[in-house]
């Protein structure tokens, strides 16, 4: 079955998280993503892991998470022979993706103008930390650094302790979504006009865009966010919005009528707090009072009572519990693929459902350069030339 992006060919020079997640999303929808890695070492994420452990004894969970449905070719990009080959490939490509520091690939002859010269229809998507010019252009643009600079970390955690980064790479993942958004927009424009273009995405701009309501609030209302000292879930919100204890585990309670909440909790003494200004001004005090009530219940019992009253609530899961949640199971969000070295790898399945062109997992994350020979053969490179590249060390191929 054709997929939505069948026929779209992408040369993917990206590494780590932002670019690879973007190209994986496109690959899930059918794009032919050719992952161009460094000869020998490959993507930097291959050497990073969690818990100081490796999936199957050798593979990085970080890499396995973001690189399914791709083919890998491992090349020495400093070689002039390789440069000539890549430009031959670019003649047939639709999209180039890269997220090196600004100027790094251009110095090697792989900038937008280089690709445009051989293929005016090319769409060149460039991801960076802070943009491609300005006072921070040479700074490392890592996810946690961007969270801090943009204001997310300062808004997170309790006010009587240090601010807390998000427990996931939000800036990188938002950057990936913006890459997809830009690439798909450029592809649609090219369908209408025949013109390619350069798409620039940076983590700082993406993070600010996703803090839009916080910035509009502060810049227009003359107030600064102050983190609460309790489990209130946002520095701009009043009680009861937050995280609460039960006899076993935690629950979240979101925007809900306070009167309904204290009635369900059988705590009429909380009625004295039931107006908007008080719920904000005394939110830590209110949190303590509500938390004292929620601690009387088992978590499942409390959730049942709250949901029956249409209170917005949910359990607080860790990763393992979330993976086994009935709704996650119903949606089929935990998938797997077979990897030649790691064995069965559990992954998060495609998040978007398409009625006519469903996304599927067709390939595991590749080994370094695993598909180099077949990729070059598809582009018309003779077998002896491929062998010469390998002999010279300008291409490495890992056997599955």
Automatic annotation (TrEMBL):
One Pfam family here: CoA_transf_3
Key word Acyltransferase present: no
Database matches in InterPro entries: CoA-transferase_III_domain (IPR050483), CoA-Trfase_fam_III (IPR003673), CoA-Trfase_III_dom3_sf (IPR044855), CoA-Trfase_III_dom_1_sf (IPR023606)
GO molecular function: CoA-transferase activity
Record flagged with keyword Transferase: yes
Gene3D superfamilies in the cross-refs: Crotonobetainyl-coa:carnitine coa-transferase, domain 1, formyl-coa transferase, domain 3
Keywords: Transferase
Annotated PANTHER family: BLL6097 PROTEIN, SUCCINATE--HYDROXYMETHYLGLUTARATE COA-TRANSFERASE
Name listed for the protein in its UniProt record: Carnitine dehydratase
Taxonomic lineage of the native organism: Bacteria, Pseudomonadati, Pseudomonadota, Alphaproteobacteria, Hyphomicrobiales
């Amino acid at each position: 079955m054709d997929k939505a992006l069948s026929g779209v060919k992408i040369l993917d020079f990206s590494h780590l998280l932002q670019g690879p997640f973007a190209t994986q999303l496109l690959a899930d929808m059918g794009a032919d993503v050719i992952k161009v890695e460094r000869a020998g070492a490959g993507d930097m994420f291959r050497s990073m892991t969690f818990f100081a452990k490796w999936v199957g004894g050798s593979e990085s969970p970080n890499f396995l998470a973001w690189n399914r449905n791709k083919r890998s070719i491992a090349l020495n990009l400093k070689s002039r022979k390789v440069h000539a080959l890549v430009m031959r490939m670019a003649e047939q490509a639709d999209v180039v993706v890269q997220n090196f520091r600004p100027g790094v690939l251009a110095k090697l002859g792989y900038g937008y103008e280089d690709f445009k010269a051989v293929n005016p229809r090319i769409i060149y998507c460039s991801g960076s930390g802070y943009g491609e010019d300005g006072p921070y252009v040479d700074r490392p643009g890592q996810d946690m650094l961007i969270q801090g600079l943009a204001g997310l970390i300062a808004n997170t955690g309790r006010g009587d302790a240090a601010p807390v980064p998000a427990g996931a790479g939000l800036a990188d993942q938002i950057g990936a979504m913006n890459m997809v958004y830009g690439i798909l927009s450029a592809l649609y424009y090219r369908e209408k006009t025949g013109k390619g273009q350069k798409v620039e995405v940076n983590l700082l701009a993406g993070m600010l865009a996703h803090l839009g309501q916080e910035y509009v609030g502060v810049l227009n209302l003359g107030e600064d966010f102050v983190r609460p000292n309790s489990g209130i879930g946002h520095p701009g919100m009043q009680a009861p919005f937050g995280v609460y204890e039960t006899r076993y585990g935690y629950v979240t309670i979101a925007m809900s009528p306070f009167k309904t909440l204290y009635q369900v909790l059988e705590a009429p003494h909380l009625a004295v707090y039931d107006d908007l200004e008080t719920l904000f001004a005394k939110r830590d005090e209110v949190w303590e009072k509500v938390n004292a009530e929620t601690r009387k219940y088992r978590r499942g019992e409390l959730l049942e009572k709250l949901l029956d009253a249409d209170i917005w609530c949910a359990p607080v899961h860790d990763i393992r519990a979330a993976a086994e949640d009935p709704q996650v199971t119903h949606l089929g969000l935990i998938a797997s693929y077979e990897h030649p070295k790691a064995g069965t790898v559990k992954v998060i399945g495609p998040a978007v459902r398409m009625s006519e062109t469903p996304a599927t997992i067709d390939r595991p994350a590749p080994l370094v350069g695993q598909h180099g020979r077949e990729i070059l053969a598809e582009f018309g490179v003779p077998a002896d030339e491929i062998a010469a590249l390998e002999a010279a060390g300008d291409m490495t191929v890992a056997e599955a």
